[in-house]
Amino acid sequence: MKGFQYITCPELRKGPLIKVQTGYMKICHIVSNKCLAVTTTENKSEVHILLINEDKVDIAERISLGHHNVSIAATPINFVVVDGNENKMVFYSTCGEELFQKYLPFYGYPHHIYSDNVYFYVLFRRNSILRCYDLYGQMKWQWELPFPVHPHIAVFQGTLYVPDTQLNRVLLYKYQDRSSGCLLPIKNPYIRNLNLRLKEKENDQKLVIGEICNLSNGQLVVSDINHDCLLYISEEGDIVSRLSLPSTATDICRWDSNHIGVTLPLQKQLRVIGNLSKTVRSVKLRQPYVQVCKMGECEIVCYCDKPSHLDILAINYYNQVEVIKTINIPVFVKSLSIDKKTEKLLIVTREKLFSTTLE
């Protein structure tokens, strides 16, 4: 019988067995109940975006592949299909639209790709090389491993977990940058560290911080993309409030002195939330925007990554929007903000910072 089954951690309890009609050879989690899987049934090689419910599995999107020599990994923001035949990484949005491609250096064919919600790790098993990429396809580091790589490993935030089958143990290796030949003392650029203080029952929960926003009262708001929630943090590092979200927030912006704007692309929604974690306004958007910036009382500028463009929207009294202007952007935008002095829009891409007027 073909099916999916949840296993909860750390108790390792079995969940219900859900029947499926398709045989899947690889699967990984994207966000919430959304998963990614590879199938090669009926002489077809496809990637499926799945919505897994308690009693059924729905196929939300299908992506055709030319062959089955692929590996997959996902984050709540995007996912990657590694094409072993063409030696490249293909980045997709969580809705299944292709964003861009990144060709890999040839160290033998890529064996597998892993993800820890923040980075992608590509393993070249033949040469024992591990390469780390961020969500935008930029390489962060490369590591030539000092040992032959076991076919089943795990990677999390630069730490490599390798099973030792002879002595029945797991070995942990931590990446360190020694490319310069020596380790030089580097001045710490941070003014201070803010240690997040979790309650005792929360100490075993891993926070993956996606976005950060400063409030006028000195608090911070951070989005935890591992649990789809907002955390309100005091100046001392205590979590004073928590707000659950229906999906991953891709952007947090200052709305005014007492409110923030939270972008939810899966819901096609902008939520205006007060300092006490209460939603005071929900604006329905027509597209799955990933970045939103407030221009005036009733105008916002939004960025959509598929295809890449900016929309200037007017918000009416019924929280509906109307497109005033569309600007095509040929590059991937990482963040948007308004310069209060010049009232110009600041656009941050992978390599450059642009300043422009929107008249």
TrEMBL record:
InterPro entries cross-referenced by the UniProt entry: 6-blade_b-propeller_TolB-like (IPR011042), Quino_amine_DH_bsu (IPR011044)
The organism's place on the tree of life at top rank: Eukaryota
SUPFAM superfamilies linked to this entry: YVTN repeat-like/Quinoprotein amine dehydrogenase (SSF50969)
Protein name (database record): Uncharacterized protein
